[in-house]
Design goal:
alpha/beta; TIM Barrel
Length: about 250
């Protein structure tokens, strides 16, 4: 059975003391019927795994190669070895700040799948692209170029994050979210066939306790990739509860 997912992306935030937040999450949601993933900065991966063995711990990026002369990078196999279960691939901040192309994201996702990690592949349009009515063509292009042929509903998750809604406080309208998620569902099935028909589709972009329940009612939304609101128990736990009861 494929569970719904609430994934928290801490980005470049948090210290060792911050891990008490995921200890509280584990205590409150130890028997959750959904997958709860916490993606802290890389140095916190192993201590987070030890602090919260009942939660899924994920990384925020991986290198496309298994090993080699890549100073400062982390391989998917290393992440797997220290206890990571998933990795975020192609977040818009990396697509923009690190000029990551969809072709590179596909290579990274392939490396993640080969290492036995769940790949959380991010896609989404900019404000300029939405205003130009290019949202669906952009999503189609990103899905076609970012998803590995070996992606299935069991090993891959797609997170739709409109770039203009990430960290801005802006949230896409329910109709906009629904249109994008239904399109992604159809496109993924067209690309990969029945093996990917139930691939989880997460929404990301200023998700918080106040709007989570409404978002989770939208067709084809299987959870959320949450940024700032995942840093504190008081903010993330209500989002998890909203998904658990959706």
């Amino acid at each position: 059975m494929i569970k719904k997912m609430a994934a928290g992306n801490w980005k470049m935030n948090g210290m060792l003391d911050s891990l008490k937040e995921i200890e509280r999450l584990q205590a409150a949601h130890s028997n959750s019927k959904i997958d709860i993933v916490i993606c802290p900065p890389a140095p916190l991966l192993l201590p987070a795994r030890k602090k919260a063995p009942d939660l899924l711990i994920g990384a925020q990026d991986c290198h496309q190669e298994v090993s080699g002369a890549h100073t400062g990078d982390l391989s998917a196999s290393l992440l797997k070895d220290i206890g990571a279960a998933a990795v975020i691939i192609g977040h818009s901040e990396r697509r923009q700040a690190h000029a990551e192309s969809s072709a590179l994201i596909k290579e990274k996702a392939t490396a993640a799948l080969n290492a036995g990690l769940t790949a959380i592949i991010c896609i989404g349009e900019t404000l300029e692209q939405r205003q130009a009515e290019e949202t669906l063509p952009v999503l189609k292009d990103q899905l076609e170029k970012s998803l590995p042929e070996t992606a299935t509903a069991q090993n891959t998750v797609v997170a739709y994050e409109p770039v203009w809604a990430i960290g801005t406080g802006l949230v896409a309208e329910p109709a906009q979210i629904g249109e994008a998620h239904r399109f992604c569902r159809a496109q993924i099935t067209k690309q990969l066939g029945a093996k990917a028909a139930n691939m989880r589709l997460l929404y990301g972009g200023s998700v918080k306790a106040a709007n989570a329940a409404e978002i989770f009612k939208i067709d084809c939304v299987d959870g959320a990739l949450v940024g700032g609101a995942s840093l504190r128990f008081e903010d993330f736990s209500p989002i998890i509860e909203a998904l658990e009861t959706a």
